[in-house]
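Appendix C. Worked example: histidine kinase
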Amino acid sequence: MARSLTRSLSGRLLILAILAVMVVEVVIFLPSVARFREDYLLGRLRMAELASLALLATPEGMLDPELEAQLLRRADAASIVLRRGGARALALSDPMARMVQETYDLRDAQAPELIADAVMLLFSDGDRVIRVIGAPAAGMDVVEITMEEAPLLKAGRAYALRILQLSLIISMFVGVLLYLLTRRLLVRPMARIVASMAAFRENPEGPEPVFVPSSAVTEVAVAEEALAAMQTELRAALRQKARLASLGEAVARIAHDLRNLLSTAQLLADRLEGSADPVAARVGPKLVGSLDRAVALCQSTLRFGAAQEAPPAPRETPVARLAAEVADAVFPDAENGDTAPVRLEIDVAGKLCVWADPDQLHRVLVNLVRNARAAIEGAGRSGVVRLSARQAGAMVEIDVADEGPGLPRKALDNLFQPFRGGAGRAGTGLGLAIARDLAEMQGGALTLVASGEGGARFRVSAPARPPGD
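Step 2, the predicted output written as structure tokens:
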């Protein structure tokens, strides 16, 4: 029970609240006891002053011994000395009084001194005789009394005990109140959050509704909203993954059949290389190369559907030759003239090489160049797609820039996210996601450098040399 109390948040807050109130009460306790002691002694001085005045009012300043003893008992004093006009006169005294062991002057006593005297009182044995000097009222006579310390000690300890009991009651009340408030405002909402998280972990795709925030405490409300958003996004991601899994299976089947069709077309295209027609002889090798890449793409699609994407086979690849092949794939000769509404410009040094898998890097660049062309045509504009490359240290940076309208906000927010980052109605965003994965497999990266009214610029980076060179 005690261990569970100290381990729980509400239990710890209860203990801390009690301790905090007790500390505050201790800070108040010492001045309070000091004030009680001072008031007690001033009360004795006032009683002594009244007894002295009664003595002075009698003829010849004489009192009956029994009356004198009664006045001393009323003042709780063994002797009374009255100072008037600089003179010091013994007013009343007990002939059996003991020797004075300590003197306290209340006239100029400061708070630290009073507190120290009060603490010493609580820990004394009360067997002393003390002298107390003070002026019971401002502008009045100075009165000295000698008295036994035992009654003062008894009254002081009784007062301190009452203060401690009251402090404990207040501490318990505040602690319980804080405990109940904490349970209501923090622990219960947190328990709801934990229960929802546990249920969601057990069955994230279950029919249970998403957590509904309800707390009025700002910090807890933020946690509840974050949990609700996380559950919503995770369920959407799980549904998307399920759709992707189904789509992947369908694509794998299509790719399997398409590979067979392309293999047949590849065999027929091989005959064009030996054709006497100059156009067929010129176009034939390009068509064969395109069919080879299409067959390889189908093979990689099948491996991707089986979660076995082929690792890259990097080698030294001239970037200029790669750029020319990309131009042939996206901008055939008939579509890349000076009069074409959209044309491709290539700015690559002839000797610049990259250490990468040429087929995979070709897929990345074809995807980017095709997207750039579609962005310009989709905006109803004419413009230029620029493919440029340069070496930057150990990396080669290949930029693909267009003069289109730039990426829309939705595409920017979900960039490189399959089926979420498409720039147009027909776009799925899958191409950019695949391109980024392929670029990272080469040891490089695919990033968006800029996007705006002047167009978009993507950058592909890949190693210039093999690792360790």
